[in-house]
Amino acid sequence: MLLHFQRHPSVTPASYPQIQAPIVTNPAFWERLGSDTLSTDMLFFAFYYQQNSYQQYLAAKELKKQSWRFHRKYNTWFQRHVEPQVTTDEYERGSYVYFDFHLADDGNGWCQRIKNDFTFEYNFLEDELSVQPN
């Protein structure tokens, strides 16, 4: 489930923390975030910007608890908006909320959107989380 997005490091003042806070490796911290739906954006941020890290794994785990499902073809998280209109062994079709992680110059993006009449093919469903210990 790990994606490869380019990091954008920047120079920060010496007064800014230069090392990661130990709490971000504590699963209980991520569970608290996952229990607050207002923190969902933070989980998405960790997933997309903490690539190949234990934090990405913990964020994905909490998103899955909130019924988000990762679509490997689109590298995007989806959640059922309503029950699917069609369900087969290979796919389901219906309305889904998806997380638009693109940061567009026009200010659109990094938000949840609704996709109607979407076919979610199960072969693109990421079902396993890769555990990456800290």
Automatic annotation (TrEMBL):
Q: Does the keyword Transcription regulation apply?
A: yes
Kindly list the biological process annotations in GO that this record carries.
regulation of DNA-templated transcription
- GO CC field: CCR4-NOT core complex
Q: Which Pfam families match?
A: NOT2_3_5_C
User: Which UniProt key words apply to this protein?
Assistant: Transcription, Transcription regulation
Record-annotated NOT2/NOT3/NOT5 C-terminal domain positions? 12-125
Family the entry assigns: Belongs to the CNOT2/3/5 family.
Know the name of this protein?
NOT2/NOT3/NOT5 C-terminal domain-containing protein
Give the taxonomic lineage as stored in the record.
Answer: Eukaryota, Viridiplantae, Streptophyta, Embryophyta, Tracheophyta
